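User: Can you fold this complex?
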Amino acid sequence: MRRRTHPPRGPRLASGTVAPVTDRVDELLEQLRARGDRVTTARRAVLVELLEAEGRHLSAEELVERIGPKHPDIHLSTVYRTLEFLRLAGIIVQVRVDRDAAAYHVADHGHHHAVCATCGAMIEFPDQVLRSLVNRLARDHGFVAEPRHLVIDGRCAACAAADN
Amino acid sequence: MRRRTHPPRGPRLASGTVAPVTDRVDELLEQLRARGDRVTTARRAVLVELLEAEGRHLSAEELVERIGPKHPDIHLSTVYRTLEFLRLAGIIVQVRVDRDAAAYHVADHGHHHAVCATCGAMIEFPDQVLRSLVNRLARDHGFVAEPRHLVIDGRCAACAAADN
DNA sequence: GTCATTGCAAATGGTTTGCATTGTA
DNA sequence: TACAATGCAAACCATTTGCAATGAC
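Assistant: Here's the predicted assembly.
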């Protein structure tokens, strides 16, 4: 609620690629240093993978798998601790669907998910779709909603059409 | 999605109490019989407790504790299976907050929760607060939202005031 | 009588924790 | 150097599952 930054994915380069993930990682790690937190191999590695996933959510397990080749010594429990740390630091967001393993993504752009109860499809929708809900909670209950990640269930267009 | 029933809590009696829980239980069990499903002691017991909790959500563990005195032989695993069965039947709704044990309540009145990230307070709000969100998902994505229970985080009025 | 449901015990699987060691500042 | 962060192994705990016994229709 103090963060007003809304950093774009990064400046586009001629090739159509974006500024190296490393830059963004360094930027985030700098935030940690500024807070007086330590910058470690594990923290950097986790951020690199999350950023390279480009919005795809990754679980702790998936992260160790991806980190493995580069840092075979980074343990699953460390990844869990790192994720919790980054979450508390407000740098990443945790996503829960059902009882599946929690997944994480960088907190850049607020977004939410609608999950199809029939086929499991997940569609993403932006923060602003929640605006009226947020306003109403504020008006009616004085509740200051800060939806970091919300999951709503129902049926995707295809399954709704298929009826059944 | 075929259920259009919106049974009131039960007819008010002169005393201000409502029709006995048993009536409501029988009504629900009748739904099962109609579907060709079996009515068992465990299913009745679980429904009785959920109805007697009057809206308070109960976990599987809490349910066995409450059922214990009357039916010491109803096992935790049976309660889990029963809850899953009733959920699929559309009779109860499962509620998840964080990694806590899942909790359940009868599917009577749709409602949702706003959870305070600071003090943990939960405020309840009715289905209709989600109307514009639901409409928008339908319009923009063809997604037919059927929010059975949604959890949104933020700060309750008190904690928001305390700022910090 | 038949087949779903249950009791029980054991397995699962994601996540957490205790502790000695390592690495950052 | 000092103290936070990590590796590892073991613990946790809600939930699930296999199987034989039981109960509903």
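Residues 38-41, 59-61, 76-77, 80-81, 99-102 of chain B lie near DNA strand D (CB under 10 Å from a C1'). Residues 21-35 of chain B form the longest helix (15 residues).
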